[in-house]
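Dear support,

Our group has been running a series of protein-ligand predictions, and this particular one with FE2/S2 (inorganic) cluster is the one our PI (initials K.S.) wants archived with full inputs and outputs. We had some confusion internally about which version of the output was final, so please treat the block below as the authoritative record. The input we submitted was:
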Amino acid sequence: MTDTTTEIMVGPVDEIPLGEGRTFVVGDERVAVFRTRSGQLFAVQAECPHKRGPLADGLLGGTMLICPLHSWKFDLRSGDALMGDCGLRTYAVRVDESGQIVVSV
Ligand code: FES
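Confirmed final output from the archive:
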C-alpha cells in the first residue's frame, strides 16, 4: 500500500491566538487549525458537515468546538460529533523546530 500523506507547512503557530482557529488551504483541501488555550493544536475540515459553517470561527471550549452557525458540537481530538449527525475529518498537525505549523493531508 502506498502512503499518500503529504506534510505541508502553512505558517507560524504564533499567528493563531490561543483559543482560536484559522482556515488554511492545504494542498487541495481547506483545513481549520485550532490552538487550544493550553496550546494544543488540532486540524479538521474547514466547513461544518451540516451547512458548511466556517468552523474556524466557532467557539472553543477545551477540545470541544461549537459551530458558529447552528451550534453543532465536535470533539477536536477525534472529530466525533458531540451534538449533531456527522463528525469531522481530522488531520495530523504539528509544529516544527522553527515554529511553523505542519499539516498532513
Ligand atoms: S452549519 Fe454547522 S451546525 Fe449548521
